[in-house]
Amino acid sequence: MTDHASDLTHMRAALALARRGLGTTWPNPSVGCVIVNQGRVVGRGFTSPGGRPHAEPNALAMAGAQAKGATAYVTLEPCCHWGQSPPCTDALIQAGIARVVVATRDPDKRVDSQGIARLRDAGIDTEEGLCAGEARETLAGFFQRTATGRPLVTLKLATTLDGKIATHAGESQWITGPEARRMAHAIRGRHDAVMVGVGTVLADNPDLTCRIPGYDRRPVVRVVADSHLRTPLTARLVATARDIPTWMLIRAGTDKDRQHAFEAAGVKLLHIPAAPAGVDLDKALQALGEAGLTRLMVEGGGQIAAALLRAGLVDRLAWFHAPATMGGDGWPGVQAFGLEKLADMPRFTRQRVTQLGADLLTEFTREK
Predict the structure, then answer these.
(1) Torsion, CA 45, CA 46, CA 52, CA 58, rounded to 10
(2) Is residue 363 flagged as an active site residue?
(3) Pick from 331, 275, 330: nearest CA to 307
């Protein structure tokens, strides 16, 4: 007989491990694995930075000989195909694992249900569905890219109560307090990449790094939508491009000499079809997905926020509100995008509200 309460405890521990890897494992999903033998945890692991080794071999390495006859709790169906590493199903079988509890199936067509079938064919008692909803939320970026080809998009806004991000003179630092800014950096660190429009680069000259004391993980990719390469070659993003991955989304016809100068500085240029204003963001997100990104955080400005919302490309909202107002001549966090009917408004479902000093963070998911 199995102990459901014990199973739940160990699967939630595996999910906590999976969350630790968010933002570091792309193009692979962040997965957690806990191995338990006779009620004692003998192995823990999650996907390594860069996506390899996977969670299961990491946990098995810790468990060693104690894996024989044990139960493995895994947040995603173990892979059963050869890629740049051997199948995790084979590793579990060879280690003598007796039982596997899987939270959710892998939607990748190379795996979907076949990993579970491989384990069962080997005589391993295999169950699925425990904490499936929590697992899918952790894996939302991987599931999004598998289903649509593009990464999960989180739009982050930090505004006054009336939705402004800067005064009419352009002053914007800082609308929110230190607690909110720290949380914004933490959210940034759980994404594979952070994207801004060129207007934000010109106005703020940002670093777009994750600046939290003690934070030492794989750098977040920095992406700029800059159709004509208006970013100054002296910008911080360009100056640090050799050390921190920096990509720019440009359109055909951009000056060749300028392209060469950016590439010489270490910037990766992605050529995206043109749109009436800037680049085609749908095609841009597809290109980012093809490059391996699964979770993208967009931090402004108002034009790119409006374009993404208008196109239905925002999956999550992280909206920081400061308890202040600025008035109609302030710069809006979301620029006009031609909405005429209330029925056409992008709608979201509130998930949680968190107080951060004097500010509030409200998190939403897009209504399907």
Answers:
(1) 0
(2) no
(3) 275
